[in-house]
Write a structure and sequence with these properties.
By secondary structure, this protein is α+β, with helices and mostly antiparallel strands. The protein contains six helices and four strands, in the order ββαββααααα.
Length: about 170
Protein backbone atom coordinates (compact mmCIF):
# COMPACT_ATOMS: atom_id res chain seq x y z
CA UNK A 1 0.00 0.00 0.00
CA UNK A 2 2.70 2.49 0.81
CA UNK A 3 5.92 3.40 2.54
CA UNK A 4 6.63 5.85 5.30
CA UNK A 5 9.16 7.50 7.50
CA UNK A 6 9.38 9.36 10.77
CA UNK A 7 12.01 12.00 11.51
CA UNK A 8 14.20 12.03 14.58
CA UNK A 9 11.88 13.77 17.10
CA UNK A 10 14.84 15.54 18.70
CA UNK A 11 14.96 17.78 15.63
CA UNK A 12 11.38 18.08 14.40
CA UNK A 13 8.13 16.17 14.42
CA UNK A 14 7.35 14.73 10.99
CA UNK A 15 5.75 11.43 10.05
CA UNK A 16 5.04 10.77 6.40
CA UNK A 17 3.34 7.94 4.53
CA UNK A 18 3.52 7.85 0.74
CA UNK A 19 0.78 5.86 -0.92
CA UNK A 20 0.56 4.41 -4.43
CA UNK A 21 -2.94 5.64 -5.26
CA UNK A 22 -5.39 8.35 -4.35
CA UNK A 23 -7.97 5.69 -3.52
CA UNK A 24 -5.69 4.14 -0.89
CA UNK A 25 -4.87 7.59 0.41
CA UNK A 26 -8.57 8.43 0.94
CA UNK A 27 -9.20 5.14 2.77
CA UNK A 28 -6.25 5.72 5.13
CA UNK A 29 -7.25 9.35 5.75
CA UNK A 30 -10.81 8.33 6.67
CA UNK A 31 -9.54 5.66 9.07
CA UNK A 32 -7.10 8.04 10.76
CA UNK A 33 -9.63 10.88 11.03
CA UNK A 34 -12.24 8.48 12.44
CA UNK A 35 -9.73 7.56 15.14
CA UNK A 36 -9.07 11.24 15.91
CA UNK A 37 -5.68 11.54 14.23
CA UNK A 38 -5.30 14.80 12.34
CA UNK A 39 -3.34 14.50 9.09
CA UNK A 40 -2.25 16.73 6.24
CA UNK A 41 -2.05 15.81 2.57
CA UNK A 42 0.47 16.61 -0.14
CA UNK A 43 0.13 14.78 -3.45
CA UNK A 44 -0.03 11.08 -2.56
CA UNK A 45 1.57 11.60 0.84
CA UNK A 46 -0.12 11.80 4.21
CA UNK A 47 1.89 13.57 6.84
CA UNK A 48 1.65 14.49 10.50
CA UNK A 49 3.59 17.37 12.05
CA UNK A 50 2.24 17.38 15.61
CA UNK A 51 4.01 15.31 18.27
CA UNK A 52 0.82 14.21 19.99
CA UNK A 53 -0.72 13.09 16.68
CA UNK A 54 2.41 11.08 15.83
CA UNK A 55 2.18 9.35 19.23
CA UNK A 56 -1.45 8.46 18.55
CA UNK A 57 -0.50 7.03 15.16
CA UNK A 58 2.33 4.94 16.57
CA UNK A 59 -0.01 3.59 19.27
CA UNK A 60 -2.62 2.80 16.60
CA UNK A 61 -0.21 0.66 14.60
CA UNK A 62 0.89 -1.18 17.75
CA UNK A 63 4.36 0.33 18.07
CA UNK A 64 4.23 0.59 21.88
CA UNK A 65 8.01 0.70 22.34
CA UNK A 66 8.32 3.43 19.70
CA UNK A 67 5.56 5.43 21.45
CA UNK A 68 7.47 5.26 24.74
CA UNK A 69 10.75 6.33 23.11
CA UNK A 70 9.02 9.08 21.13
CA UNK A 71 7.21 10.41 24.21
CA UNK A 72 10.41 10.33 26.28
CA UNK A 73 12.19 12.45 23.67
CA UNK A 74 9.16 14.72 23.32
CA UNK A 75 9.01 15.35 27.09
CA UNK A 76 12.74 16.09 27.26
CA UNK A 77 12.47 18.44 24.28
CA UNK A 78 9.48 20.21 25.82
CA UNK A 79 11.27 20.64 29.16
CA UNK A 80 14.39 22.05 27.47
CA UNK A 81 12.15 24.47 25.60
CA UNK A 82 10.46 25.59 28.81
CA UNK A 83 13.77 26.03 30.60
CA UNK A 84 15.17 28.04 27.66
CA UNK A 85 12.09 30.28 27.60
CA UNK A 86 12.35 30.89 31.35
CA UNK A 87 16.07 31.64 31.14
CA UNK A 88 15.54 33.98 28.19
CA UNK A 89 12.72 35.77 30.02
CA UNK A 90 14.79 36.12 33.18
CA UNK A 91 17.79 37.38 31.19
CA UNK A 92 15.62 39.94 29.41
CA UNK A 93 14.20 41.13 32.74
CA UNK A 94 17.68 41.44 34.25
CA UNK A 95 18.92 43.38 31.22
CA UNK A 96 15.92 45.68 31.42
CA UNK A 97 16.54 46.27 35.14
CA UNK A 98 20.25 46.93 34.61
CA UNK A 99 19.65 49.32 31.69
CA UNK A 100 17.04 51.24 33.70
CA UNK A 101 19.40 51.40 36.68
CA UNK A 102 22.23 52.74 34.50
CA UNK A 103 19.95 55.44 33.11
CA UNK A 104 18.74 56.36 36.61
CA UNK A 105 22.26 56.54 38.03
CA UNK A 106 23.46 58.66 35.11
CA UNK A 107 20.60 61.11 35.73
CA UNK A 108 21.36 61.24 39.47
CA UNK A 109 25.06 61.87 38.82
CA UNK A 110 24.19 64.63 36.36
CA UNK A 111 22.06 66.29 39.03
CA UNK A 112 24.95 65.92 41.52
CA UNK A 113 27.41 67.52 39.09
CA UNK A 114 25.10 70.47 38.41
CA UNK A 115 24.32 70.94 42.12
CA UNK A 116 20.61 70.31 41.54
CA UNK A 117 20.38 67.06 43.50
CA UNK A 118 20.32 68.91 46.83
CA UNK A 119 17.49 71.14 45.55
CA UNK A 120 15.18 68.15 45.00
CA UNK A 121 12.45 67.41 47.51
CA UNK A 122 13.29 64.93 50.25
CA UNK A 123 11.41 62.03 48.62
CA UNK A 124 13.41 62.34 45.38
CA UNK A 125 16.71 62.78 47.24
CA UNK A 126 16.02 59.68 49.32
CA UNK A 127 15.30 57.46 46.29
CA UNK A 128 18.30 58.94 44.46
CA UNK A 129 20.60 58.10 47.36
CA UNK A 130 19.16 54.60 47.63
CA UNK A 131 19.63 53.99 43.89
CA UNK A 132 23.27 55.13 44.02
CA UNK A 133 23.93 52.85 47.01
CA UNK A 134 22.06 49.90 45.46
CA UNK A 135 22.52 49.95 41.68
CA UNK A 136 21.45 46.32 41.19
CA UNK A 137 18.40 46.40 43.44
CA UNK A 138 14.92 46.01 41.95
CA UNK A 139 12.31 48.74 42.25
CA UNK A 140 10.34 46.63 44.72
CA UNK A 141 13.41 46.19 46.93
CA UNK A 142 14.22 49.90 46.74
CA UNK A 143 10.65 50.71 47.73
CA UNK A 144 10.94 48.56 50.85
CA UNK A 145 14.10 50.40 51.94
CA UNK A 146 12.50 53.86 51.85
CA UNK A 147 11.72 55.58 55.17
CA UNK A 148 8.06 55.36 54.12
CA UNK A 149 7.90 52.18 52.00
CA UNK A 150 6.52 52.49 48.49
CA UNK A 151 5.41 50.02 45.85
CA UNK A 152 7.08 49.45 42.52
CA UNK A 153 5.00 52.05 40.67
CA UNK A 154 5.72 54.74 43.27
CA UNK A 155 9.47 54.10 43.08
CA UNK A 156 9.32 54.04 39.29
CA UNK A 157 7.45 57.36 39.27
CA UNK A 158 10.09 59.02 41.46
CA UNK A 159 13.00 57.71 39.41
CA UNK A 160 11.35 58.80 36.16
CA UNK A 161 10.84 62.23 37.68
CA UNK A 162 14.58 62.38 38.48
CA UNK A 163 15.43 61.40 34.89
CA UNK A 164 13.05 64.04 33.57
CA UNK A 165 14.59 66.75 35.78
CA UNK A 166 18.10 65.70 34.71
CA UNK A 167 17.15 65.84 31.02
CA UNK A 168 15.82 69.38 31.49
CA UNK A 169 18.89 70.72 33.29
CA UNK A 170 21.85 72.16 31.41
Amino acid sequence: MGAGSINNPQKEYHLEITLNSEENQQVIIKILQTLGIQVKILDLAIYIKEGEEISKFLALIGAAKAVMQFEDIRIQKEMRGRVNRLVNCETANLNKTINASIQQIAAIKKLQETGKLQKLDDNLKEIATLRLENPDMSLIELGKKLSEPLGKSGVNYRLKKIIEIAQNCQ
